[in-house]
Amino acid sequence: MPLAIPLEALDEDTLRAILEAFVSEEGTDYGHRDYTLDEKVRSVRGQLEKGEAVLCFDEATESVTVVPRDQAPVP
């Protein structure tokens, strides 16, 4: 079962690397406007800070991803 990771458990460089990897791979359609990597990272970070999304570590795959709060594991 994936484990939720508190944002404060990660240093800034590690968090940034995780978010850059996530927004680079996730393939979401952002509409007609092109967004920069920084804009996408800020958007996802904002969702994490507001509690709308959660960072999760999957022990089976040894990977970290971002999931909506309602899909996050219950602590």
Summarize the structure.
The protein has 75 residues and is of the alpha+beta class. It contains 2 helices and 3 strands, in the order βααββ.
What does this structure look like?
- With 75 residues, the chain is of the alpha+beta class.
- The protein has a single domain (3-71), classed as Orthogonal Bundle (Arc Repressor Mutant, subunit A).
- 37% of the residues lie in helices and 20% in strands.
- It has a 3-stranded antiparallel beta sheet with strand order 1-2-3.
- Strand 2 (53-58) and strand 3 (63-68) form a beta hairpin.
- Helix 1 crosses helix 2 (37-50).
- It is globular.
- The mean pLDDT is 87.
Average pLDDT number = 87
CA-based shape:
globular
Q: In what order do the strands lie side by side in the largest sheet? A: 1-2-3
Taking the alpha carbons of the first and last residues, their distance comes to 11 Å
- According to CATH, what is the topology? Arc Repressor Mutant, subunit A
Oligomer: single chain
List the helices and strands and how they pair.
Elements: E1 3-5, H1 12-25, H2 37-50, E2 53-58, E3 63-68
Antiparallel strand pairs: 1-2, 2-3
Helix pairs in contact: 1-2
Task: Give the tags.
single chain; 75 residues; alpha+beta; Arc Repressor Mutant, subunit A; 3-stranded antiparallel sheet; 20% strand
